[in-house]
Design a protein that fits this description.
Number of strands: 0
Shape: globular
Distance between the termini: 54 Å
Number of helices: 11
């Protein structure tokens, strides 16, 4: 792919402005009209020392949330192996939300491409990063998305729910009101699931 695509997209991201919906949709539209730019978007998202990576992560999440979650599937190896390297708060949140979308799709009753393409290795890497996000200082949105996707992935991996339960009970429930509320909700889901498997 020509280098100018990367430069063009970087320029669009630099000119994005604030995170307002219309700004994110405007730059998303450029990528939606030229799917080749999506690969560059992933590349910029993981240029983690560069502040423009934050805006790339916003657009990546916007496209996955509002338009095409399946576009991330060819890039799952890169996405799952590099999310642990993301360090700006404002870039971690969109990555956590994409992980939540992947978990939701994977455990959806409806058939979808995520079920075919999200591998055990991808899941293990997402789970490991998720636990890292829960034990390090993160914003409430990251905590919320992470607890959600760990709950889902714990439906098949038996060790996840006890670890998640322990972290919520000893750490997260003592944080902000929002964390406490989401933590209690996840604890209730874990208990309900435990009872249903007895």
């Amino acid at each position: 792919m020509p280098k100018n695509n990367l430069l063009f997209l970087t320029e669009q991201l630099n000119n994005l402005g604030s995170a307002k919906r219309e700004n994110r949709q405007r730059v998303s539209n450029i990528v939606l009209e030229n799917q080749n730019l999506f690969k560059e978007l992933v590349t910029i998202t993981f240029d983690v020392d560069n502040k423009v990576s934050i805006k790339a992560a916003w657009i990546l999440e916007w496209i996955c949330t509002h338009h095409h979650l399946e576009w991330i599937l060819p890039h799952l190896d890169e996405f799952t192996s590099k999310i642990e390297t993301v360090k700006f708060d404002s870039a971690i949140r969109p990555c956590a939300k994409i992980c939540e979308h992947l978990a939701n799709a994977y455990y959806s009753k409806n058939e979808n491409e995520v079920k075919d393409q999200l591998t055990i290795n991808h899941i293990d890497t997402i789970v490991a990063t998720g636990f890292d996000w829960l034990i390090t200082p993160q914003k409430i949105a990251v905590r919320a998305y992470t607890m959600n996707f760990l709950y889902f992935f714990g439906l098949q991996n038996e060790w996840i729910h006890p670890e998640l339960k322990h972290l919520i009970a000893t750490k997260i429930i003592h944080e902000s009101k929002g964390c406490k509320a989401r933590g209690k909700h996840i604890l209730e889901l874990i208990e309900k699931h435990r009872k249903s498997t007895l």
